[in-house]
Design a protein that fits this description.
The complex is a heterotrimer of chains A (316), B (276) and C (282). Chain A is built from 14 helices and no strands. Chain A has 316 residues and is mostly helical. In chain A, helix 3 packs parallel to helix 8, helix 3 runs antiparallel to helix 11 and helix 4 runs antiparallel to helix 5. The two termini of chain A are 27 Å apart. In chain B, the strands form three sheets. Chain B has a six-stranded mixed sheet, with helices on both faces. The longest helix of chain C is centred in the middle third of the chain and has 21 residues. The chains are: A mainly alpha (316), B alpha/beta (276), C alpha/beta (282).
Amino acid sequence: MAMLILAACLVLAAALSLGARFITPGELLQLLQGHGDPMVRAMVIELRIPRILMALAAGAALAGGGTVFQAMLRNPLADPFIIGVSGGAALGATAVILFLPPGVPVVAGAFAGSLGATFLVFSLSRRLSLGSETLILAGVAISFSLSSMVFLMYAFGRSSDVHRAVMWMMGDLSLGRYDMVLPGTLMVAVLIGALFFFHRHLDIISFGENFSRNLGIGGKSLGTIFWIAALLVALPVAMAGIIGFVGLMVPHITRSLWGGRHGRLIPLSACTGALFLLAADTAGRSIAVPYEIPVGVITGLAGGIFFVAMLFRRRQ
Amino acid sequence: MTETRQGDILFSLKGVSGGYGGKEVIQDLTLDIHRGDFAALIGPNGAGKSTLLKLMTGILIPSKGEVTFKDKAIQGYSPREFARQAAVVEQSMRTLPSYTVGEFVELGLFPHRQLFSFAESPEASRVAEALEECRIAHLVHRSIDQISGGELQLASIARALVQNRDVLLLDEPVSHLDIHHSIAVMDLLHDLNARGATVITVLHDMNRASDYCGRLIGLKEGTLFFDGTPEETVSYGRIEELFELVCIVRDNPITGAPFTYPVPGYVAQGKKKGTP
Amino acid sequence: MITIHRYILIIFLPLLLAGGCGGKESPEKGNHPAAQRIVSLSPSITKMIIDLGSEHRLAGVTSFHPPLKKAVPVIGTLVNPAVESILQARPDLVLLSEEDGATQKSDLIRATGLRLEMLGRHRNFKDITDNYRRLALLLGREKTALEKLALYEKRLAALRAEVKRVKEVTLLLATRPLVTVSSGSFINAMIQDGGGRNSFHGLITAYPVITLEALVKKNPPVLMVMQKGGKKELERMLNRFPATALKKRNIFEILPDTVAYYTPEDYIRGVATIRSILGAAR
């Protein structure tokens, strides 16, 4: 636990200092006091801090949502995107980037797409049964259909627009601005808090479908938890594109370190996810200045390494 | 040990058919469970015993017919409402590590808790009592992924007791238990029943059922085969037909309940009694 | 109770987020002195700045840029410029093209206090010259712009006058898949000015992907392809069909860099290339 706090301080410090220009703690202090180079001031306040907030919020949301979906789907390999959130967001965002004038916010399109697709998946599996398998199947089916529609859109778009759409899909935390990040962070906090209320439900759900039903957790509770988690995951995707593996890896790591009880798992996953994403994003924007390695690439690589490591661990 | 009590009707099934994926396991079943019954569901594999239990708890929706609990259609209960009034012990379960046995048993209080209250339940004593009755008090701080299958089963029963002591539905509660714990659990259920609980349990051990239960409900291929006290129902002809084996029936010298003694060698060879 | 809150959330959230993003802020009106340190977020804008004699004022360029006499710091790619690097260059003006630039970052750039001006999209020569003039205004190089534009207009008029007969032509940007242009693209205007009639000008998207069948059916008398090795490819593809362009040996290859930039000079050069091809076509 102490390790976590220490890591948090280190990562935050690094995130504030690293970038196109290394900002020393001395300079940061100056900024706090109100003096300092206005360019550095703008860099820290308008660029770095919103981006840090966005990374923390997105990481927490993805990891928190991932934890919940792994419990609900009773599958430790479930990625929160499996319910259609990413496919829908890709469709919505691509449609906005490719076919609407530049002023229209991509966020709205992505968010609408996310919720629409999730609703489809939810209704489809409800019609059959809200069992975990049906949900996964429905999610996979819808995701495939949505991604082919995205590819179709690519065929009709201008190449620079398509390039931008693809970059959005890889995850881009650079577009954080206070008027979006602050409400976004607030919403993430509220939703994670809401999920925390259900931590015992989630424990019980993990025990089994019939077990949880016999203890009184029925379709209504499941639906509520599902939608809170779906909203939670749709937020970071809408704001920052599709950042994979955070929702899959972080709950795994947290579970192996601190156990599977959701009372602890939810807040710890959220914190770990937040720090992990912040670290990944800071690395992505500092390693090859002025080029940015999309954060989705870094999390993907980390994910790959993580799973290979897990494979080797299992052999022992 | 084998008296039945006739109370008001708790569960009522009328012409119920149900199953999985279109296949009807239970066919046109009509059955009433009275308050204070200690009923055993017996029958061969695949007869539909677990399915019947699931129909009674509302997990499975019947394709035909009606299931009522306390005169209200079972689908009319929210899962929480039903969970407060009846406790179910399942056959198998996944485990979530890092719950202790004590915490697991305490889950039985979950349906009774208000959703957003953080107050500790004053019924902590119920948990201790249940642990004692199931003889697992010494395991209270052990993690549930570190206990044996039998101990887990006892923990499940303890959890059910914490949840509700009036109506208990159990699916093979003693299948993994050694004889000591088997008897302990059956004694416990009998005791609860004597104090007014309604117990419905799927049992694969005919003799155990005969010893303890006041009512034996035999299922064969999804239909009711027999329904009555052990004395009324256990006869070698019926048992042979139900389970497709050869046996003789003798009274248990201690309890007087009719016990079934299968004759070895006749099932595999498909022989009938009387042939060499 | 929870259900109602859920619906409220769903309705208000997109509004919240969308409201937060805001559209284009209206450009600052007011007199700014001519910009001295410029970050150009588009290679075409960079080229026009060079053309207007202001190369020395460049403080930052994109990774893909026209040849520069002196090294200028790179601030990122066309699609993804790094705003921190832009800030570090301490410009007094940042220029972005709506045609192909990273418009999604415009709000962020303005939020840091930098002055951002966006040049609009262009469908034809007039649009390009309008942008050129606007750029000159920002640089305080109106005189140079007027002189240069006069020259360009003269050259364009001369090219247009050369056209005796309008020939039908299909222009392909790529062979795998076959990408052509429609009237949504300014390349169409270049073709027209060069004396051609674009076979596919009526299609909806600016750069439509067509099938080989469609091309064979259209059977244009002249075929131009803007891809290295494209001529050979097309000859191979059309070999089995009765293709007029193939028969008359009217398949021409154009090097892509002429059209990569959207500047008046490159437009004229493009038109000239097309004109000479069409003039020589059988």
